Amino acid sequence: MNRFVPAERALRTAAPDQLLQAIRVVLARQYAASSVELFMADYGMTVLQPVPVPPYAAEPLPIHGTPAGRAFGAQEPFAEPADGDVERLHLPVTVRGDRLGVLTVTLPADHARQSLAELAEIAQILAHELVVAGRHTDVYLQARRLHRLTLAAEMQWQLLPGHSCAQPEYEIGAQLEPAYAIFGDSFDWSSTADRLLLYVTNGMGEGTEASLLTNLAVNALRNARRAGIPLADQAALADQAVYAHYQGAAYLSVLMLEFDLATGRVQAVDAGSPRMLRLRRGGAVEPVSFEAQLPLGMFEETDYVAQEFQVHPGDRLVVVSDGVHEAASPGGERYGDRALARAITATRLLPAAQVPHAVLRQLTGHRSKVAPDDDALVVCLDWNGRTSSGS
């Protein structure tokens, strides 16, 4: 019997808050591990936070410039020599492309070389169990916090599907800033055997009021989507839900995209301010424009029309909220399409999951010390397409 089978059984039968303790026992017994630590990526995707939080665990680790951060960024196991004949293995903890953190296992060097593949698989099993356990305990959500979240940010992060997602046809990465004080911007995605739906919303207002507005709109879109309603009608029903509650006093913008996974045909409803740019393989960055339609909830019973365009294997789509596009430098210069195109070009070799954070770092440099007055949202989608043999 493979040694990882007892590890899988231990994870599946452990209490939700005891996953790390369960895997420590098994890895010590089956792999002679002397130390096992779990680190979760924080909301800002800058630090790997230990589980449980200090002072009862290891210290937080920067994602950039550390062995654990290297494993997290590359999404590949990384072996770090330790004292004597001991190695420290850093293993990505990732589920369906959503990068949760790193499992660090210290064990004899000869065991490490022989056990790397099995331990990497155990880290993936752990990722699945962390997602399930998150429905029943706050331990892992608490571990992600470098700082306390505002109430509005708490509401928004609970609404979001994750930081990234990967399937054979596509890869998605998304990030919001300021991570611990966001309030209105949001993103959502959902896939079936044939379709991917991606929504990017640009909220209105501040604090919990903005978060409440976004929660209403996103859940109205989900309700319509889960009823099997076409894209344009999803927008119309969400528009009615927002207008019924706010009577036009509050509204929000959304870009809705529905991808046909087999053909790359895309339906789009552009209801407001999110902007999309496309980077073609070997080409320049170009804006993708649609006929502008009214934001959700601005007027009663607005009709929406879906437009179409085509994506090709190798295309990269980057969608930003106006907190990115309209961000001002100390001298009042807008970030705009030109700077955004430079940032997209500069990050062309990064995987989709890393692009949003890299673009937002460049945005921070543009703003310098000017405090942001709006959420900044970046979503990146890499289109791989579907092979003739299927998904």
TrEMBL record:
Keywords per UniProt: Hydrolase
Protein name: Serine/threonine-protein phosphatase
Organism: Streptantibioticus parmotrematis
Ranges of residues in domain PPM-type phosphatase: 167-383
Lineage: Bacteria, Bacillati, Actinomycetota, Actinomycetes, Kitasatosporales
Source species, domain of life: Bacteria
Pfam families: SpoIIE
PANTHER family recorded: STAGE II SPORULATION PROTEIN E, STAGE II SPORULATION PROTEIN E-RELATED
